[in-house]
Amino acid sequence: MARAIWNVEGEIQNELDPSEIVVWTGQPSAWATFIFRRPDFIVGVILLIFSCELLLRVANAPAIDKPDGIMGIILLGAFPLVGVAFVASVVFDMIATRRTAYAATDRRLLIVRNLIRRRATTIAPTAINVLEIREKWDYSGTLTFRREEEGDSVKKFAFVGIPNVREVARHVKELRMSANEQAS
């Protein structure tokens, strides 16, 4: 059974309050998602290469030199599984971009994902205290907004691979300013 075509506007409308106004909507690009998640991909590939090398050494070693017990399990199973998990999570995120939508409204920011199960993340403007823009030559890019808490706690969200990232950043800044004015 084929899944119905995903309606971005409809998914966002399902999350809105009756009087809420959408200022901007967009979707991530798969390539930008890969670039954003490349550290995880690199760690996964390094773990896979390292574990394959270890597995080849263990397979070609004399029976006396082969590790027993927990070390043998770690060498033979854990490293490759962790490497595959890292690489698979990046590939999964790239696939999920087709069913991910971003929205900026007059009250909040939304990230809606509907791949295996539907999940909507709401970011209140008061929860954003740092805004980072990474722009490419074609004016697309990644807008990262985060909330730095006391100590080492940092909550990070991003609109990854969106066109005209500066325009969206301007909307987010206006949203933050209006929220700060209302709080005063």
Automatic annotation (TrEMBL):
Keywords: Membrane, Transmembrane, Transmembrane helix. The chain crosses the membrane at residues 41-58, 70-92. It comes from the Bacteria. This is PH domain-containing protein. It comes from Rhizobium leguminosarum.
